[in-house]
């Protein structure tokens, strides 16, 4: 499935560029799927509650929620919880959907456990800051969805 870009940001083609932050006009608002009132077209594609495994098959955590954009209602990030006990002391972070390589009984990503552990932590207070999502994309080395020429991943099929 291809996505026609609605914005232009030439710097976004370089995932490591600090200038890949969207302007207010370019950036869709992201929200948790659980707060949106929407459901996935295919309930079997709902990966919430599944374990997340790194590129070596090591467990990282569990998919806690999905973040979708309000313009196209596409999944942009998986929110992962790791560690803690009964939800207390858990570390929460986002992984771009572009890092997912396979989703079956578990979600497999193309990053190492160490790379994910070094990612910017998810903080709801920072979620509305323009630089936050850009820093997450930059950390994982993938172009942000608002960048020129961005194409939505063909797999997994998140709708």
List the helices and strands and how they pair.
Layout: E1 30-32, H1 33-36, E2 51-53, E3 59-69, E4 75-82, E5 91-96, E6 100-103, E7 106-109, H2 113-117, H3 130-140
Parallel strand pairs: 2-7
Antiparallel strand pairs: 1-3, 2-3, 3-4, 4-5, 6-7
Fold and architecture overview:
This protein is of the alpha+beta class. It has a single domain, classed as Photosynthetic Reaction Center, Chain H, domain 2, CATH 3.90.50.10. Helices cover 13% and strands 25% of the residues. The protein is built from 3 helices and 7 strands. It has helices at 33-36, 113-117, 130-140; strands at residues 30-32, 51-53, 59-69, 75-82, 91-96, 100-103, 106-109. Strands 1, 2, 3, 4, 5, 6 and 7 form a 7-stranded mixed sheet that branches. The protein is globular and about 35 Å long. Mean pLDDT is 79; it is low at 1-25.
Low-confidence runs = 1-25
Which CATH top level class fits?
A: Alpha Beta
Helical content, roughly?
Answer: 10-25%
Structural class based on helices, strands and sheet pairing: alpha+beta
State the CATH superfamily name: Photosynthetic Reaction Center, subunit H, domain 2
Q: Hey, roughly how much beta strand do the residues contain?
A: 15-25%
- Return the string of H and E elements: EHEEEEEEHH
Tell me the number of strands: 7
Count the DSSP helices. Answer: 3
Overall spatial form: globular
What characteristics describe this protein?
159 residues, alpha+beta, Photosynthetic Reaction Center, Chain H, domain 2, 7-stranded mixed β-sheet, 25% strand, globular, disordered N terminus
């Amino acid at each position: 499935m291809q996505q026609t870009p609605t914005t232009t940001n030439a710097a976004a083609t370089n995932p490591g560029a600090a200038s890949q932050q969207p302007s207010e006009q370019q950036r869709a608002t992201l929200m948790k799927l659980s707060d949106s009132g929407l459901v996935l077209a295919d309930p079997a594609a709902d990966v919430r509650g599944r374990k997340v495994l790194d590129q070596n098959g090591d467990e990282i955590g569990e998919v806690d929620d999905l973040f979708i954009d309000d313009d196209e209602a596409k999944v942009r990030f998986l929110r992962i919880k790791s560690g803690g006990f009964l939800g207390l002391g858990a570390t929460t972070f986002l992984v771009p959907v572009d890092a997912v390589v396979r989703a079956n009984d578990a979600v497999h990503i193309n990053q190492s456990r160490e790379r994910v552990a070094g990612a910017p932590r998810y903080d709801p207070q920072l979620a509305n800051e323009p630089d936050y999502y850009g820093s997450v994309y930059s950390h994982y080395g993938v172009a942000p969805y608002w960048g020129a020429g961005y194409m939505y991943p063909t797999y997994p099929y998140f709708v």
